[in-house]
Amino acid sequence: MLDRNTIKKQLSEVSPGFLVAFGVRAAMRALPMLVDKAKEDKPFWFWKGNEARHLFNILHALRSSVAVSSFYTAFDTSYKPFYPYASAYGCFFDGIEVSDAASTASAFDNYVAITLAARGAVYDSDRYLLATFDHYNPHYFASGDHTSYFAAFHDAAVFFSAYAFPAGTTTQGIVLEELNLISPINFFVDKKRGFGPVLDYLTQPLWQGRSPENWLANWNDFKQAVLSVDEGLSGFLNWFDDRIAGKPIDLLLLGKQTLIPEEILVQDVASINAYLNSLTDAGKALNRVRAIFMGYGTAGKTSLVRCLLGEDVVEGKEDMTPGIDIREWPVPDSPLRAHMWDFGGQVVAHATHQFFLRTDCLYVLVMDARAEINATEQAQYWLEHVKAFAGSAPVMLVGNKADLVRINPDLETLQERYPNIVGFYNLSCTQYKTVYKPDFDSFKRDFIRQLAQMELHQVRFLDKHFNAMRMLRAQSRKQAFLTETDFRRFCEQAGVQQDGGLNQEWLLDILDKLGVIIHFPDLPFHDAYVLNPRWLTYGVYALLYSQAAKESQGRLTRQQVVTILQQEEIHDEQGHVLFYPREKCSFIVEAMRSFKLCYFLNDNASTLVIPDLLPSNRPELHFDKAQPGIVFEFRFLHLLPRHVMPMFIVSRHHEIENDQVWQTGVVLKNDTHVARALVTANYSDRVISLHVQGIDAKDYLHILHDELTQIIDKLKDLPFDELVELPEEALYREGGLLRMYPKEKALYRQLLGTLRANHKTFISTLGYKYNLFKVLGYIMTNEKLEKATNGGCTINGNGNVVINNVQNSAVGNIGDVNISQLSSNLDNVLRQLIDVIQIEVDASADKEKALRELAIIREQVAPAMNGGQNEKRDVKNRLLEFAESLKNGVNYVAKVSSDVAAIKDKLPGVLTAITALVDKLLS
Question: Is the pTM of this model over 0.90?
Fold first, then answer.
C-alpha cells in the first residue's frame, strides 16, 4: 500500500487548482468500485432504495470539481496557506480502506460532503466561476476564503490515490505518474490566467498509455449498473468517457452543467438529468433577474429605485409604497432586465414577504439614518428575514440620507454572522447627481455586477420551451387566467409534448417556480389553470392596503372585496391594466385563504378576517392565567417573523372562542378535548407563549405545538428554544413551605436530557429541586412520554413512571431538540477517553494518532446539533464507521487501549453514547 505521508508531501508542493484536479481524477478511477458484483440484481443495495439520488450527487460532485479546479487556481504555487485546515477533514478518510462496494460508497458519500459542504466558502463565488474568460478576474478568487475547500480535497486526493484502484493495477506507478504530471517543473502556474495549466492537466487521458483491461471491464459494468437505475444519467457517463479518452473540455457547457439552478435541483433526478442532457441544445434564458428592496417605511427604498432609473428625487415628495411596487430596468451592458421589487415598509407587509423572498434574488437593505432603531439593529432584523426566507442570498446594505446623518453599523459583527453581505454604502438619494454622485456610482456599479452574476444561474430553455413560454406570457397580459386546455394548446403549438422528458408538466413546474405564471393544482375552486402572478400580487396588496380594510380593522365582506378591486385601475410594472371582474374576485380571496392570510368568520361565511389588520390592542379576555394549567414558550433567538402568529390564527380560527382575537393573540377552545388556550406573541421579546388549561390540556398543548412547529419549520434554520414553566406540584419543599413559588422556566431539551441521564430529580437554575417525572408528566401524555424515550420509560397502572433500560435508548421529543444533549453526552465521553489516554499511554506514534482520531471525531459531532439533514446524515455515517472499527480493534484508539484496562473500561461507554446519538439521527 502506498504510504499516505509520501503522497501528502508531494501534494503540498502543488497549487490548490492542481490538487483538486488530482483528487477528482483519482476519484474517477474509483467509480467502478461502487458496483457490488455479488449482487448483480441490485448492485447499489447499500443505498437502500435511493440509488438514483446518490449516483447523481456523486457524478455531479465530480463534474463540479473539474469545473472548480479549472478556474480556481491559486496564484501562489505554495500550498502552505491552506495546509492548517487539512486536519479538520482527515476524518472523512482516515481509517477507511476500500475493500468492498459498500465502503467505497461510504467514501464517495464523504467525497460529496466535502465537495458540497466544504465548498460553501467557494460557493458564494460560484457566480464568478465560469463567467467566460473575458469576465474572469483573479480578484474574485483572492477575496474568498477557499482554504477549507482545497484542504478537504487534499485528504480526498490522498485517500483515493492510496486505496481506490482495482486489483492488479500498479498503484505506486500510477500515482507517481500523476504526481509527475502536476509537478511545478512540468506545469508552471500562470499567475495571470492560472486555470490554463490545470485545464491542460485535466484534458490528459485518465490513464497514461492504455487503460488497464480489468479497469475497463469494471467501468463498463459500472455504466450498465448506472443506466439500470436511471437512463438519464447517460449524459454523465458520456462526459466521463470523454475524460477517460482525454478529449477537450467545453468550458461554457461545463459551466451550465455545474451551476444548476435551484428551481431544477429541487426536482426529481430524472427531471434533473433530462434538463442537463438538454443543455447541449438549450441556449436561451429568461434574462430576467429580481432585486428586492427591503427596509422600514421611511428608509427611502422607492427613492433609491428612482435613482437607479435616473429619475429625480425630491426630499419629502415620495409617498410611502402601498404594499409593493415593481419597476423594470434594462441592466446596462447586459441582455438582462431587472425587476426591482420595492416592498412597503409597513408591518402588515412583513407577513407577506414569505411569498416573494427567494434565494435567486439580490437583496438591497435600505436603512434610515434618522430612525430611532440604530443601524446595526435595523440590519439584523432584515438580515434575519433574508436568512429565514432566502438562505444565503446576497445582500447589499445602503445607508440613505447620509447628507443628514451617516450611519455606522457594526459591519464586522454583521458580516461575521451574515457572510452573504456583499457591500455597504452610505449615500443620499436626494443628492445622488451632485455631492453624493461618487458614492451612488459605486453602489450602482456593484449593483449591476451582482445582477450580472445572477445570469449564470438562470434556467436554460430549448427553443420549443422558450416559444411556449413567450406565448403564455403574451397571453397573460391580455387575460389573467388560462385554462388547462389553453395551456396544452400553446405547448403543442410550440412542440412541447405531454410525455417524455422536459414535457408540459416539467415546463409548468419550472415556470411556476420562476414566477412567470402561478399554478394552483390543489385549489379546484376555479376554472383557472395558470395565472398571471402580477394579477394576484397587486390584487392581494390592494386589499391589504385598502381604506375599507383599515377602517373595519381587517374585516371585509365579499362585496367590499369586489368594490376595492374595481374602484381604481391597477397597473403592472409595464403599464398593463389589470382587470378584476366580479366573477374572478373570489380567486383572490381563495388564494389568500390558501396562503393563510385570512379566514371566514365561523358564523358568517360572507365576512373575511385578515389577522394582520386586526386591532393591535388586546380586548377584554375571559381567560384567567392564574388558574392551573401548562405554560409553554417558543423563544426565538434573533427573529420572530411577523407571519407566524397570523398564520397560526388562520390555522386554528375554527376554535376561536367568542371572537377573542387580536393581531398578536387569540383565545382558543377545543371541542374534541376539554381544554382552552391563550396564545400570544411578544415581538419585542421574540416569544410566543401558550397557556393551556383544562382536563385535556396535555393533548391540546401537543396539537397547538405541532401547528406552530409546522409553520416555523418552513423557514430556513430559524433558531429558537422551547421552555416549560416548572409546575409548583413538582417542587420538592425541603425545609418547609416556600414563602413564594418562584415560577421558573426550564429548557424542554434540558428536561429530556436529564431524563436521558437516568435522573429522577431536576435542579433548576435557581437551585430548586423538582420531581422530573411530575414535570414531564404535567406536559406530556403517557404515550408521548413513552415515545420520547423510545420505550425507555413506561407508565404503570398507578400512573408512576418506570425506567426501562434508558441507558441504551435514544431520547426523542417534539422536533430534534434532544440531539444537543446526546451530542454533548458523546462529547463528554470522548473527552474523558482523551484524558485517560494522555495519562495512561506512553508517548508513541500510535498514541498521537489515537488522540488525533478522537479529536477529529469530537469536531464532527457538532453538525449533529446545528446542521441540516445532510450534515446529520454525514455525522451518522462517520460515527457508525468509527464505532465499527472500534469494536473490531482496527483503529488507533482500539490499538492503544488493548493493554490498558483503564481505557478498555471506557470504550463500552463510547459505543453506548454513539449508539444513542445514531439512533436519534436515524429516527
Answer: no
